[in-house]
Amino acid sequence: MLKDEIVLTVNQISRNKQFKSLNTNYHFWADPGFFKETSKEGDKELLEVMMSVNTEGNRPICFFPLEVKEFVTDKKLDQVLNVRYFVPGHILFDQYKKIDFSGMIPGMNTVVQYAIMLGIYMGCTEIYLLGCDCTGILSYIETKTDSGNFEYAYDISQAEAERMKAMLGGVSCEQTFYGWAKIFEGYRLLGGYCKKRGIQLINLTNGGILDCLPRKKFENVVK
């Protein structure tokens, strides 16, 4: 379905049983919660998930923030994965001049936005988002209310559920909701950046709450 497209994926999508069929070209990891040093079962499992983006006949380029290079080398991920690094640090604003992945780029609050910026840097004139429903905030609410139901495009193990609960439970409501406000701001600013340059940034996700980007139906775009 996507074999003739440039495919960028993020986080733990390799847990999805259909991941291999995506033939992803680039994969991103950015959330600091993925790089904490512990010996718990969920963290060991996460390393296996990171390495599983390599599939039969496909070894995508995997991007990590430069600040976690020591983690990547200590865990020998660079010996398995085709690793590259990016350097977040700038602040994205309405008049931001140029997104340049060869230097410092804006620091964002969600990994998807780094993937969008790489697409912009590579000269893509059409960038389509899939699975970007922006409902991750519900995972935080469920953690705080002890319901513990995490919904993703893939199944997670009990060990991963426990890892996520521990990670989310240590963050205050104020921090979390501020972070989510910055996520929506980031999508709005990237949408404006693209519009000024004639780049189509379109959300093909079915449902969700991302309301600052134009939408199209998946079946009308992906044949």
Cα distance, first to last residue? Answer: 7 Å
Strand content: 5-15%
Q: Tell me about the biggest sheet?
A: 5 strands, parallel
**If you compute it from the alpha carbons, what radius of gyration comes out, rounded to the nearest whole angstrom?**
17 Å
> Whole-number average pLDDT?
90
H/I helix tally: 8
Strand order of the largest sheet: 1-2-3-4-5
Shape: globular
Number of domain units: 1
Total strands: the figure is: 7
Keywords:
223 residues, alpha/beta, five-stranded parallel β-sheet, 7 strands, 36% helix, globular
In short:
This is DUF115 domain-containing protein. The chain is of the alpha/beta class.
How would you portray this structure in words?
The protein is an alpha/beta fold. The protein contains eight helices and seven strands. It has one domain. 36% of the residues lie in helices and 14% in strands. The strands form two sheets. Strands 1-2-3-4-5 form a five-stranded parallel beta sheet, covered by helices on one side. The chain has a two-stranded parallel ribbon with strand order 6-7. The longest helix is centred in the last third of the chain and has 24 residues, at 173-196. This is DUF115 domain-containing protein.
